[in-house]
């Protein structure tokens, strides 16, 4: 059984006065480990890695891994919470060097999107991912997100890449039910939705889980959703998802991670800071988020009517 199942959180990078706030980052790792999430993603899109220099990226990853290990030690668990690491770019050789560096770290795997901006052919995508997977000693999770990269991973491409022993899962943000279903039925890749509003659909189809930015808020309810559906408790899962759906939708009403950070800041967990060109969520949206979050905390089913 692949480890790439359940609810994974693509961690935001907290800032304080323009610098990475490592104390707040440790607090987030503890919060999500205690909520029972399956794993964390470091330096994914939600973590604003494009706004971090190389040294900052390494420091963020080191903090997450260290706190995950510390949490395991305090709880007596044999293994730390798994951490997947985002590796992005469009220069295959540089990405390969980064992956070789990561081989020595105790990570669960690497998350890699198609090369952005240059829009390579499908053959070029296969060659790119194959070279990177060949260099990786850790499992690889493909990231299909064409609205960011400018190129989608076609089904034949995904099925070809599924034959590589290191490529074990896909973060599915393509918006194609046909491809999602075909990958699930093929069975070689674990399918994790990256579109939070599709969590219920993907799990009911037989997908393995989600990498969900919105699970930064009320993570225990997202874990309960996964567990209910994994156990076949459809009505319970539907009830939980319907209660979460308005909050999920509001959290993506403006560019991620602005709304997520605003609500985490309202909880006192981080400062509401982003680095340009990302900006804070607007005041009207923050007010709406506070309203939905209040309903979700105090009346889990009342949010469905909001």
From TrEMBL:
Keywords of this entry: Amino-acid biosynthesis, Cytoplasm, Diaminopimelate biosynthesis, Lyase, Lysine biosynthesis, Schiff base
Compartments in which it is found: Cytoplasm
Enzyme class: lyase
Catalytic activity, as annotated: L-aspartate 4-semialdehyde + pyruvate = (2S,4S)-4-hydroxy-2,3,4,5-tetrahydrodipicolinate + H2O + H(+)
Keyword Amino-acid biosynthesis assigned: yes
Homology family: Belongs to the DapA family.
Reported function: Catalyzes the condensation of (S)-aspartate-beta-semialdehyde [(S)-ASA] and pyruvate to 4-hydroxy-tetrahydrodipicolinate (HTPA).
Subunit structure and binding partners: Homotetramer; dimer of dimers.
Protein name: 4-hydroxy-tetrahydrodipicolinate synthase
